[in-house]
Amino acid sequence: MEKLLARALAGDTRAIGRLISLVEADTPSSKEIMKAIYPKTGKAQVIGITGSPGAGKSTFVNRLIARFKAEGKKVGVIAIDPSSPFTGGAILGDRLRMQDHAVDSDVFIRSMGSRGNLGGVSRGTHEGALILDACGFDVVIIETVGVGQSEVDIVKIADTVCLILTPGMGDDVQIMKAGIMEIADIFVVNKADREGADKVAADVQVMLKMLGEREWVPPVALVSSNKNTGVDEVREIIRKHGDYLNSSEEGRRRRWSQLQMEVEAILRGEISLLVERSWSARRSDELMEMLSQRKADPYTLAGDIIKTLLK
Fold first, then answer.
1. Predicted TM-score (pTM) of this structure
2. 67 or 209: whose pLDDT is higher?
3. What is the SS3 string spanning the chain?
């Protein structure tokens, strides 16, 4: 394991991929891997790209990668795809749309399955981003699966969240959902060459005013990923938002909130595993029959399991 870690930290992409696979699969070595790499994290800028399916997220990410590469930055990408119902693995659609950078030594692209997470982001996504951070990537882009209003977990990981909207896809209704509105640091109206793009941008501006005054008012950028226009503007906004987070009280609060959520997520995972093991040890045909006949109730049973764990 030490050799694998050393190779990954030295920039060996195959070793980096292997580390991510071990952590994503929650192997026995995954905790030791994360303990070893965590002190080396905290340097990369993590950018979340979210929005409805078909909004052009992958094409936009493809253009954004090129901007970062032009600045000499190493870019890691985690593209969350829907998990296969048969294997649990990711359907590699997003990765196919980023083939322009697939063989670039300064770009690492990894597809991950959503693993059924309603927030579109699994625990492995966060740990994968930390591994890329530790292995020297200056920017880590996380493109989420795009599942609508529940797509808010990305705020627990990303420094800057870009919400991709498009004309003609019902986004004028989508932007009215408070959860989506509140996670976005930048609104990107993609496919801006289409009719209705200006209306979507205007609707966003109206909704932002309704949310009240904020220290950082999310800018609205018009982009055409296919025609490669407007991406430079978004890149500059991302830079400004990074500077804002580094110098503001809100940035400090946000970092602390993310760290708190990180610890809580690990605790929930550990406790869930303990509960599952305790329940499996106690479960029997006799007990299930008692429950089905209402001679025992699940509330008392769950309470007994918790008391046992607390002891």
1. 0.86
2. 67
3. CHHHHHHHHCCCHHHHHHHHHHHHCCCCCHHHHHHHHHHHCCCCEEEEEEECCCCCHHHHHHHHHHHHHHCCCCEEEEEEECECCCCCCECCHHHHCCHHHCCCCCEEEEEEECCCCCCCCCHHHHHHHHHHHHCCCCEEEEECCCCHHHCCHHHHCCCEEEEEECCCCCHHHHCCCHHHHHHCCEEEECCCCCCCHHHHHHHHHHHHHHCCCCCCCCCEEECECCCCECHHHHHHHHHHHHHHHHHCHHHHHHHHHHHHHHHHHHHHHHHHHHHHHHHHHHCCHHHHHHHHCCCCCHHHHHHHHHHHHHC
